[in-house]
Design goal:
The structure is a single chain. By secondary structure, the protein is of the alpha/beta class. It folds into two domains: 4-184, 3-Layer(aba) Sandwich (Rossmann fold); 194-402, CoaB-like (Rossmann fold, 3-Layer(aba) Sandwich). 35% of the residues lie in helices and 25% in strands. It contains 15 helices and 20 strands. Strands 13-12-9-14-17-18-19-20 form an eight-stranded mixed β-sheet, with helices on both faces. It has a six-stranded parallel β-sheet with strand order 3-2-1-4-5-6, with helices on both faces. Strand 19 and strand 20 form a beta hairpin.
Length: 403
């Protein structure tokens, strides 16, 4: 479906790469409109962008012969009209300067005033020197933009125009294009659905300093939260303090221990339609928590005791909620993995169990990819071969929706 995409270009050397991005978007049948800062036009001619976009490039708030009386008569302001028809805005490359302006609401040129008037999603694609990127002020501004709902496509590692090697290179335009289309394809298939996803690993304290935890990164849970969000659901992500954060502005609550997690579930599960128990919850806790810090001068014995299985509590807390439980096993053959998944499904009374083997380094814990088996309570089994966790999230939701 044809969409209006607005691209803001600032004075980064990577600006020339955006020409290719525009070509890709045009080939996908989108209308592309371009705003350039004055500094950007010193680096690359706006005629090049007019040629590939087939539209006028905007640069000046006040063009020659500006007449305020004509504006009052027509009730038309160029940057507002442009913002109103925008389905999605992309700022690439985004310099430290534009990031600072947007984070603090400054609007002193055509790009910043339009950005403030845009009500559609905005994607920011930073590109700069590695030391500039790592500057705490820049990182603070990035965090502010994320909290406001901007999607940040972070720069990659590579040889930079300044000669430095490190993080700061504009992400590949093909990757940016995929993110653009992912947002444009956002639909309302889950609109009205209340969804809770848990993600990341719990910790169980030994003393005030030390704790027991696991390798869960929370990436799978974050991917499911993102996919539910893109389908219009009302999403709550209950995640571990140090776990992976989703890219979109999704409501979240933070836990540390299994007790914290269960408390948050009890407080929020009412009227929940779908519950994804993805978090890796510790099966054991310390028999006795030690106040202060245990001395390291001599060896100690720690006694671990089993703790409550949170996944088994979900249906007791909310019988009508559809439960999708995750089951991680180590080094099992496929038939054995399915058997463990079925056992988990029966014990927890789950509607679906997503089982996976975490014995390989290229999938599961801490990896970008995974390979899983979906098991339904009607004994339907579907294997999802090794693909990215974001794609797995999409396949899982499609499978549940179809059933």
């Amino acid at each position: 479906m044809k969409k209006n995409i607005l691209i803001g270009i600032t004075a980064g050397i990577a600006a020339y790469k955006v020409l290719e991005l525009i070509k890709i978007l045009k080939n996908e049948n989108h209308d592309v409109f371009v705003i350039m800062t004055k500094s950007a036009t010193e680096m690359i001619s706006k005629k090049e962008f007019e040629k590939v976009s087939e539209n006028k490039v905007f640069t000046d708030l006040f063009e020659k012969n500006f007449d305020y009386q004509q504006v009052l008569e027509d009730r038309k302001v160029e940057h507002i009209e442009l913002a109103d028809k925008t389905d999605l805005m992309v700022i690439a490359p985004a310099t430290a300067n534009i990031i600072a302006k947007l984070a603090n609401g400054l609007s002193d040129d055509f790009l910043t005033t339009t950005s403030l008037a845009v009500t559609s999603p905005i994607i920011i694609c930073p590109s700069m020197n590695v030391n500039m990127w790592n500057n705490p002020i820049v990182q603070m501004n990035i965090s502010k933009l994320e909290s406001f709902g901007y999607l940040i496509i972070k720069p990659t590692v590579g040889l930079l125009a300044c000669g430095y090697e490190g993080v700061g290179k504009l992400e590949n335009v093909e990757v940016i294009d995929k993110e653009i289309n992912k947002l444009l394809e956002k639909n309302d298939s889950m609109k009205g659905a209340k969804v809770i996803i848990t993600a990341g690993g719990t910790i169980e304290k030994i003393d005030e300093v030390r704790s027991i935890t696991n390798r869960s990164s929370g990436k799978m849970g974050a991917a499911i939260a993102e996919e539910c969000y893109l389908r219009g659901a009302d999403v709550l992500l209950i995640r571990a303090k140090s776990s992976f954060r989703p890219r979109y502005v999704i409501k979240e609550k933070i836990f540390e221990t299994a007790v914290d997690l269960l408390k948050l579930i009890k407080e929020n599960i009412k009227n929940t339609d779908l519950f994804f128990q993805v978090a890796a919850v510790s099966d054991f806790k310390l028999d006795k928590f030690v106040k202060g810090k245990i001395s390291s001068d001599s060896s100690i014995n720690l006694e671990l005791v089993p703790q409550i299985k949170i996944v088994d509590q979900i249906k007791k807390l909310s019988p009508k909620t559809k439960l999708i439980a995750f089951k991680a096993e180590y080094g099992l053959k496929e038939k054995e993995l399915i058997k463990e998944g079925i056992d988990k499904l029966n014990k927890s009374k789950a509607d679906y169990v997503i089982a996976n083997d975490i014995s390989r380094n290229d999938r599961g814990f801490e990896s970008e990819d995974n390979e899983v088996i979906i098991i339904s309570k009607t004994n339907i089994v579907k294997k999802i071969p090794l693909i990215s966790k974001s794609k797995i999230a999409s396949v899982i939701l499609d499978f549940i929706d179809n059933k």
